[in-house]
Design a protein that fits this description.
binds 1,3-dihydroxyacetonephosphate; 8-stranded parallel β-barrel; alpha/beta
């Protein structure tokens, strides 16, 4: 079975002090779920301190993006070189960055290669808008995003990355995709696309999360779906009890 991964994308929430207090409270509640990867992705400001607090612990730290260059005149950006030693994971291609920060499939691809070069595990977010969903373009959109994001990758590297299927219409809206629908998109669109690009073995090995209005009342239903290997969580990852519940329910649903 693919190892489940639950990652909290904190977006632009929590000060450094709040981030530290959060992980100190969370860690003892979730550290015994050994069979699940557990990740928090704080704001850049909090990453060094949170990383120090979580050193050698089973709760891992991720960044919410990175720049592909090592350094340069790129105001506001943060490179892999700067993140090295602090993180194990990095979210790339989040729809909010595609919408507000000019992220494209091409920049996602550059960031993906930079992340791998630094030994970070990329969590690549893909998903369709509401208009695309209603126009029945989901398959086409996901194909294009995957082809662009994963260009020039070899099958071995591809099998180590994580995908997050996040329908944009489901993010922060409370309008979560039906678990069976998310399972179908992952099983019938995303994995077959990966199989075409990298072979069936890689498609079966790759971990694919669902993201979009996941919370303790719908988590069990998502995690019971065989194609869904975890979740990328926004709002519900900001509360210790909710995030703990998500991890517990993953263990229950996957029989771990
Ligand atoms: P919500 O869980 O708040 O809908 O956010 C999902 C998300 O964007 C995770 O990256």
């Amino acid at each position: 079975m693919r190892r489940p991964i639950i990652a909290g994308n904190w977006k632009m929430y929590k000060t450094v002090a709040e981030s530290v207090a959060f992980v100190q409270e969370l860690l003892p509640k979730i550290e015994t779920y050994f069979a699940i990867d557990k990740v928090v992705c704080p704001n850049f400001m909090a990453i060094p301190t949170v990383s120090e607090v979580l050193k050698d612990s089973p709760l891992k730290v991720g960044a919410q993006t990175l720049h592909w260059k090592q350094e340069g005149a790129f105001t506001s950006q943060t490179s892999g070189e700067m993140l090295k030693g602090y993180i194990d994971f990095v979210i790339i291609g989040h729809s909010e960055n595609r919408a507000y920060l000019a992220e494209t499939d091409e920049t996602v691809n550059k960031k993906l290669h930079a992340a791998l070069q630094y030994g970070f595990t990329p969590i690549v977010a893909i998903g369709e808008t509401k208009d695309e969903l209603e126009a029945h373009l989901t398959t086409e959109v996901l194909h294009k995003q995957l082809q662009g994001a994963l260009a020039n990758l070899d099958a071995h590297a591809a099998s180590t990355i994580i995908l997050a299927y996040e329908p944009i219409w489901a993010i922060g809206t409370g309008l979560n995709a039906k678990p069976e629908d998310a399972n179908r998109v992952i099983g019938e669109v995303i994995r077959p696309t990966i199989a075409t690009l990298f072979g069936e073995e890689t498609a079966q090995a790759m971990r694919i999360q669902y993201g979009g209005s996941v919370n303790p009342s719908n988590m069990l239903a998502y995690m019971q779906q065989p194609e869904i290997d975890g979740a990328l969580v926004g709002g519900a990852s900001l509360k210790v009890d909710d995030f703990t519940q998500l991890i517990k329910q993953t263990a229950e649903a996957k029989g771990l």
